[in-house]
Amino acid sequence: MEKKLDNIEEGNQSRSKILNDFYYPFIEEFDRVSKIMYKESFVETGDKCPKCGAPLVIKEGKNGQFVGCSNFPECKYVQKQESDAPAPTPIGEKCPECGGELLLRNKNGNSFITCSNFPKCRYTRKVASSNTSPVIEEEKKVKDCPDCDGYLVKKKGRFGYFLGCINYPKCNHMEKIMRKKRK
């Protein structure tokens, strides 16, 4: 190849002809070898794809393992996985906003209490995560809300702490927390 490049420099041979003679056989060989080297080995599940009849295999994706069709770009069947999250359990209380049943839910390892009428009612409440039984975290009442029948609690926003109404978003009342001046 070095001599051929020297011939191009001297003007004895065409650059495009030499590069084409090298490039096309190289790409064919590269494609042949890459199919052998990078072939993914999947574990078959023993089941057949309900859409095309090809075997189902366990594949690795960005969210972990899943079961899909081995005939992938032609058939895009993916088997639904069963959720590991426990079903929401009623706690025996009524929602203060709409009167619906309150449920204990667990999502991504975080427990919280929410209304059974979601998404119509968006009431939620924190749960202490240290105990196995649902112990409701008491929100600290600072003072009564002047705009509604709720009360103000200390909340953290992007600009620091403030007092906000517990009935947000129905009541948007909030107050700044003034810092004490240092001497």
**Major sheet strand order:** 4-5-6-7
End-to-end separation:
81 Å
Low-confidence stretches: 129-138
**Overall 3D shape:** elongated
Q: Indicate the proportion of strand residues.
A: 25-35%
Count every helix, treating DSSP H or I runs of 4 or more residues as helices: 2
Structural class given helices, strands, pairing? alpha+beta
Number of strands: 11
Helix-residue proportion = 10-25%
Order of helices and strands: HHEEEEEEEEEEE
* Main beta-sheet annotation: 4 strands, antiparallel
Tally of discrete structural domains: 3
Write the layout of secondary structure elements.
Elements: H1 2-10, H2 15-37, E1 43-48, E2 55-61, E3 64-69, E4 89-94, E5 101-107, E6 110-115, E7 124-126, E8 143-144, E9 151-157, E10 160-165, E11 174-176
Antiparallel strand pairs: 1-2, 2-3, 4-5, 5-6, 6-7, 8-9, 9-10, 10-11
Structure commentary:
The chain is an alpha+beta fold and 183 residues long. Helices cover 17% and strands 32% of the residues. It has three domains: 68 residues, no CATH class; 55 residues, no CATH class; 45 residues, no CATH class. The protein has a four-stranded antiparallel sheet with strand order 4-5-6-7, with no helix packed on it. Strands 8-9-10-11 form a four-stranded antiparallel sheet, with no helix packed on it. A three-stranded antiparallel sheet has the order 1-2-3, with no helix packed on it. β10 and β11 form a beta hairpin. The longest helix has 23 residues. It is elongated. The chain starts with a helix and ends in a 7-residue tail after the last strand. About 5% of the residues have low confidence.
